[in-house]
């Protein structure tokens, strides 16, 4: 005669129970006391949807549903006076029938509900939150109130990308995403009138369904955003900052806003080398690399419209904000020449180095960032060259000009006057600016340009006869070599310093052996000034 309610299952978590005026969705089995079934929502494949306490149900069910939790199961016995009474329902419910209902509550909401947001993780650093008209990328699991999964971006392995607050989303999601930080995780519960309403979405989501979205925000930007630069390390000494047209070498780590690494020059153990402001890199990086110093470290945050856009690239998803942590190793301009800084010059500095001089010097070679490449000090011996003879890179030939013994200078050589784009494998990186700290220790004056041997006094008028030791009218290489050596040893002649004696002598002999037969005759033999005079006469 009285209503009987047996709570057969009550979930551990029950944040809310049914109250009069609430709208519920539930499944049920309806049977008579003998077990005969008269109705079932399961057979129809849809829940029973109704307001509670508004007379839309039989009185016993209106009362039995109050206090239920979502996912709670109740066994309800309803007497006739709280069911269909003495009249029953013709053809279905006989008069004065006691009704048994096995009820499972699926959903619960009220017309006064709003979106509920529960943040269960928020990063310590949150410099920006979602605002209306922002574009966001997020992952989500979408369930009903009973926990049934209806959709998941994780299963598709692709974020959901959309504008917020301009009608691209259901109203409840538009509202629930506002104020989120990148990396934040929150649960957004949306009543149906702020979701898909009475009709549902026609596919997975039934009408009048409350929706629960477990969301993690991965990315956030606004179409009006420019790049953001965060300076991390700026050297105290910064004599020059990069400009449009400069060529930069830098290391970087590239991540998404959520910290996911997508690329790193460090992993390749090679800098990224490029011109700046010329369109060789994405627009945001072109802008972010301007105004940097050598040795500077900065973070460049680039919105997708200045990055890889809606399509993305490789393992960079579409519409992704990019974060580059860069370290500038060096930069130069193709118009740069050698830079010379004199650190010490002796008071007695009258003899200056020139092309053809033989120089002995010590050096430390490094990159612009201070990385040591090479040092003659560590080898314990000087580096010896003939200046201007191509024995060193062009920039070093230029940097050693007009130097006196005892002078110390720093020579900065751009790559186009150094080792170029290729560098020296395993020793000098490609396109590297080089810094040489030099001390000149010895200078042997060279000969005039074009000469490998000169006389220190008057030239004998019978020079050929003196060289032709056996007076057979022909000079062989051995005779020629012995004669030149004797003149050098006696101080009467001088060879160009820094070159191999035998190679010089052989070169001189070959120049005199005009018919190439390995012998020089008196007719072939001519001094250099005689050769020049004959050429002038011919002209």
Question: Can you put this structure into words, describing what you see?
Answer:
It is a single chain. This protein has 539 residues and is α+β, with helices and mostly antiparallel strands. Strand 8 and strand 9 form a beta hairpin. The chain has five domains: 106 residues, Chitinase A, domain 3 (Roll), CATH 3.10.50.40; 106 residues, Chitinase A, domain 3; 105 residues, Chitinase A, domain 3 (Roll), CATH 3.10.50; 106 residues, Chitinase A, domain 3 (Roll); 80 residues, EF-hand (Recoverin, domain 1). The C terminus is likely disordered. The longest helix has 14 residues. This is peptidylprolyl isomerase. PPIases accelerate the folding of proteins during protein synthesis. Its EC number is 5.2.1.8. Keywords: Calcium, Endoplasmic reticulum, Glycoprotein, Isomerase, Metal-binding, Repeat, Rotamase, Signal.
How do you describe this structure in short?
The chain is of the alpha+beta class.
Topology readout:
Blueprint (H helix, E strand, L loop, with lengths): L3 E6 L13 E9 L5 E4 H4 L3 E4 L7 H7 L7 E6 L20 E11 L6 E6 L13 E10 L4 E4 H4 L3 E4 L7 H6 L8 E6 L20 E11 L6 E6 L13 E10 L4 E4 H4 L3 E4 L7 H6 L8 E6 L19 E11 L6 E6 L13 E10 L4 E4 H4 L3 E4 L7 H6 L8 E6 L20 E11 L8 E3 L7 H5 L6 E2 L1 H14 L2 E3 L5 H12 L7 E2 L6 H11 L1
Antiparallel strand pairs: 1-5, 2-3, 2-4, 2-6, 5-6, 7-11, 8-9, 8-10, 8-12, 11-12, 13-17, 14-15, 14-16, 14-18, 17-18, 19-23, 20-21, 20-22, 20-24, 23-24, 25-27, 26-28
Helix pairs in contact: 10-11
CATH architecture of the largest domain: Roll
- Please state the structural category: alpha+beta
Overall geometric form: rod-shaped
Strand content: 25-35%
Terminal Cα span: 139 Å
Number of strands: 28
Q: Approximately how much helix is present in the residues?
A: 10-25%
Rg (C-alpha, Å): 46 Å
Query: What is the makeup of the main sheet?
Result: 6 strands, antiparallel
CATH class of the largest domain: Alpha Beta
Poorly predicted residue ranges = 533-539
How confident overall, as mean pLDDT?
92
Tally of alpha and pi helices: 12
**Count of structural domains:** 5
By CATH, the topology of the largest domain is Chitinase A, domain 3
């Amino acid at each position: 005669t009285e209503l009987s309610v047996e709570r057969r299952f009550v979930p551990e978590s029950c944040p809310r129970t049914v109250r009069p005026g609430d709208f519920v969705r539930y499944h049920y089995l309806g049977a008579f006391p003998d077990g005969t079934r008269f109705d079932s929502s399961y057979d129809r494949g849809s829940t029973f949807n109704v307001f509670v306490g508004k007379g839309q149900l039989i009185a016993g069910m209106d009362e039995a549903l109050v206090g239920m939790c979502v996912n709670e199961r109740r066994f309800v016995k309803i007497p006739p006076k709280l069911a269909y009474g003495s009249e029953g329902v013709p053809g279905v419910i006989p008069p004065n029938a006691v009704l048994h209902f096995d009820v499972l509550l699926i959903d619960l909401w009220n017309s006064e509900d709003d979106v509920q947001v529960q943040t269960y993780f928020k990063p310590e650093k949150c410099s920006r939150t979602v605002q209306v008209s922002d574009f966001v990328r997020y992952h989500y699991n979408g369930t009903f109130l009973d926990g049934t999964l209806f959709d998941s971006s994780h299963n598709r392995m692709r974020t959901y990308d959309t504008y917020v607050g301009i009608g691209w989303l259901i109203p409840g999601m538009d509202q629930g995403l506002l104020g989120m930080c990148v990396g934040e995780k929150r649960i957004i519960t949306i009543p149906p009138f702020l979701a898909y309403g009475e009709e549902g979405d026609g596919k997975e989501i039934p009408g009048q369904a409350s929706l629960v979205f477990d969301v993690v925000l991965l990315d956030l930007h606004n179409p009006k955003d420019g790049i953001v630069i965060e300076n991390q390390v700026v050297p105290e000494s910064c004599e020059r900052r990069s400009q449009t047209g400069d060529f930069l070498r830098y290391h970087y780590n590239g991540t998404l806003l959520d910290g996911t690494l997508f690329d790193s020059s460090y992993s390749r153990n090679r800098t990224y080398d490029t011109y700046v402001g010329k369109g060789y890199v994405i627009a945001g990086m072109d802008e972010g690399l301007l105004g940097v110093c050598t040795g500077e470290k900065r973070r460049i945050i680039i919105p997708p419209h200045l990055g890889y856009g809606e399509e993305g690239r490789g393992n960079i998803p579409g519409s992704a904000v990019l974060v580059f942590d860069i370290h500038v190793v060096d930069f130069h301009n193709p118009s740069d020449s050698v830079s010379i800084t004199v650190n010490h010059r002796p008071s007695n500095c009258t003899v200056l180095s020139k092309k053809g001089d033989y120089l002995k010097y010590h050096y430390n070679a490094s990159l612009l960032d201070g990385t040591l490449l090479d040092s003659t000090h560590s080898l314990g011996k000087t580096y010896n060259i003939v200046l201007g003879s191509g024995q060193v890179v062009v920039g070093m030939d230029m940097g050693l000009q007009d130097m006196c013994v005892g002078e110390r200078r720093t020579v900065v050589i751009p790559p186009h006057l150094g080792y170029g784009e290729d560098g020296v494998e395993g020793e000098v990186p490609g396109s590297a600016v080089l810094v040489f700290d030099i001390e000149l220790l010895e200078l042997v004056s060279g000969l005039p340009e074009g000469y490998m041997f000169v006389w220190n006094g008057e030239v004998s008028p019978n020079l050929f006869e003196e060289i032709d030791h056996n007076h057979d009218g022909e000079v062989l290489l051995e005779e020629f070599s012995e004669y030149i050596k004797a003149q050098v040893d006696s101080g009467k002649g001088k060879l160009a310093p820094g070159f191999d004696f035998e190679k010089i002598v052989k070169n001189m002999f070959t120049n005199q052996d005009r018919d190439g037969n390995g012998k020089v005759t008196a007719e072939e033999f001519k001094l250099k000034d005689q050769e020049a005079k004959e050429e002038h006469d011919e002209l």
